[in-house]
Specification:
The chain is α+β, with helices and mostly antiparallel strands. It folds into 2 domains: about 35 residues; about 160 residues, no CATH class. About 15% of the residues lie in helices and about 40% in strands. Strands 1, 2, 3, 4, 5, 6, 7, 8, 9, 10 and 11 form an 11-stranded mixed beta sheet that branches. The longest helix is centred in the N-terminal third of the chain and has 30 residues. The chain is globular, with a radius of gyration of 23 Å. The N and C termini lie far apart (about 75 Å). About 30% of the residues are buried.
């Protein structure tokens, strides 16, 4: 009988090496999926170091609601803790969250595109019945919350008004500060599941 090429130790090492490579590929594939779904969110809400926060959302969900005769609203919630679309979950002192509410005039549909935050007056009409679509960013750190000053935008990459669909986008809110107000920002990318749709 002809000998099997290579020694036993070499064959064993080759088997282990192949298994290790396969494990690394699987880990990278799974890790890549988790990374895309849970990208970091960066918040600057004020000058104090405690107001500079970055977190990877433990919860990310969106709600698409049409208020007949008033407005169309998409509310996106990104939270560092186990928040829920179905029931209120109190935020603790160590938690952080961001809520971005996209509001469009009555009869409008919200789709992919850029939604600016330039202040209520710039968008016309009233807060609840604007003349032009806009995105309102609110951040909450512990027990404190802030509506960020006008500046920047939300870029929606994908949105579909269907239950369990995915909403994806990029946060680009940035206020450079002035003589009366400090600089603030809300940045990062996100993917959120539509947990509530009312058309």
């Amino acid at each position: 009988m002809a000998p099997f090429s290579g020694t036993t130790s070499r064959r064993t090492f080759g088997l282990i090496d192949w298994r290790a490579s396969a494990a690394v590929l699987v880990w990278l594939a799974l890790g890549g999926c988790r990374e895309r779904g849970h990208a970091w969110v960066y918040v600057v809400a004020g000058p104090d170091p405690s107001q500079h926060v970055e977190f990877r959302p433990a919860s990310s969900y969106a709600e698409y609601v049409v208020y007949p005769g008033a407005r169309t609203e998409l509310k996106i919630t990104l939270a560092s803790y186990a928040a829920s679309c179905d029931a209120f979950v109190a935020q603790t002192e160590k938690d952080a969250s961001a809520t971005i509410t996209v509001i469009a005039p009555a009869g409008s549909e919200l789709g992919p595109g850029t939604y600016q935050w330039a202040g209520h007056e710039a968008h016309g009409g009233s807060e609840q019945q604007p003349e032009r679509p806009y995105a309102l960013p609110t951040v909450r750190l512990g027990r404190q919350s802030w509506v960020l000053p006008a500046g920047g935008e939300l870029e929606l990459k994908a949105v579909n008004a269907k239950q369990d669909a995915r909403v994806r986008g990029i946060l680009g809110f940035d206020f450079p500060g002035d003589g009366e107000h400090v600089a603030t920002s809300l940045k990062g990318s996100f993917e959120a599941k539509l947990c509530r749709v009312r058309l």
